[in-house]
Design goal:
Radius of gyration: 25 Å
Structural class: mainly alpha
Distance between the termini: 36 Å
Helix content: 55-70%
Strand order of the largest sheet: 3-4-5
Number of strands: 5
Order of helices and strands: EEHEHEHHEHHHHHHHHH
């Protein structure tokens, strides 16, 4: 076996790696990281469907030596919960989860791992148990320039994830608006309209992909939840949701984006010297792009939350 990469389908700069098992004669823990090329990984997730083993603990110690982050994940919690429900007369889910977590932590501490963090995860229902906590921990411990990339690549498991994605997208709007204003200041007929339309198509499509509102993501969701695509679409209101963004769409959106007072200012500016028309054009372009992206992002985030609630209501 060798490390197997799985590039993210929407974010090519995000890659998950499936690494071979550690602890065999072929992959001893003390040589394992060098073999897999540890320097290219940002962090390691050590996954076990049963108890975390001595080899897991040894690998964690080696990862710690090289200064990388690592997280222990106990998977298939659904099975353990089901077994406990069948075997106990007075079943308490929280006590069962804490018992599993404590057993994992105690086992790792006996192997010399200080203060291990163990996350209990369901393979089918990511919003349950500790996956949200794992997600928050990874975000918090990544360098800031990689944090936004991780946030956008994560699945929508709860409203807070959608909110974080929205804030990442929102933080970039001013840069698109400034770029639009700079282009508008270039006195080339038709350049600003063409550039703004192309920019909006690209940015709004990124919003759809990141928020899970593109057609492929919605089809995948409807199949997974055994719901018709029309039922999923019914909870969405934004004109961009669930379809490819077109230049015709964004042209119409631009026409309705500028406040009347701005148009009045532009009209007044057009009667002035040509040199004064340039800042007016830049202001109009900045305002149009900022308004379109802000209002559309707000609408799309509401749609993403509605789609999430629809999915969770029909598990």
């Amino acid at each position: 076996m060798k490390p197997e990469p799985y590039p993210h389908p929407r974010h090519p700069n995000v890659t998950l790696w499936d690494l071979p098992g550690v602890g065999t004669t072929k992959f001893p823990a003390d040589q394992y990281l060098e073999y897999v090329g540890f320097e290219k990984f940002d962090f390691f997730i050590l996954v076990s469907a049963d108890r975390l083993s001595e080899n897991d603990a040894m690998l964690a110690q080696e990862i710690k030596k090289i200064g990388k982050k690592f997280y222990f994940v106990r998977s298939k919690i659904d099975h353990n919960i089901g077994d406990e429900q069948r075997s106990q007369r007075e079943y308490d889910e929280e006590k069962t989860l804490q018992k599993i977590r404590d057993n994992c932590i105690q086992g790792l501490e006996k192997q010399g791992v200080a203060s291990p963090r163990v996350f209990l995860v369901s393979s089918f229902d990511l919003h349950l148990y500790d996956f949200p906590a794992l997600q928050d921990t990874m975000e918090r411990e990544l360098p800031s320039h990689k944090r936004d990339v991780l946030i956008l690549a994560l699945p929508n498991i709860c409203k807070s994830t959608i909110y974080k994605k929205k804030e990442v997208f929102r933080s970039r709007i001013k840069y698109y608006a400034i770029l639009s204003a700079l282009i508008a200041a270039v006195p080339v007929p038709g350049l600003s309209i063409a550039a703004n339309s192309g920019m909006l198509v690209s940015v709004l499509q990124d919003y759809l992909n990141g928020l899970g509102l593109d057609e492929k993501s919605l089809e995948k969701l409807s199949n997974a939840k055994k719901r018709s695509l029309s039922d999923v679409r019914a909870v969405m209101k934004c004109i961009c949701s669930g379809k490819d963004v077109t230049k015709e769409q964004v042209t119409m959106m631009l026409k309705h984006s500028v406040h009347p007072t701005v148009l009045e200012a532009a009209e007044g500016g057009s009667k002035l010297l040509p040199v004064l028309q340039i800042p007016i054009a830049a202001m109009l372009s900045f305002t149009s792009i900022y308004r379109v992206l802000t209002s559309t992002l707000d609408s799309l985030s509401v749609d993403a939350e509605n789609v999430l609630m629809e999915a969770l209501d029909h598990k």
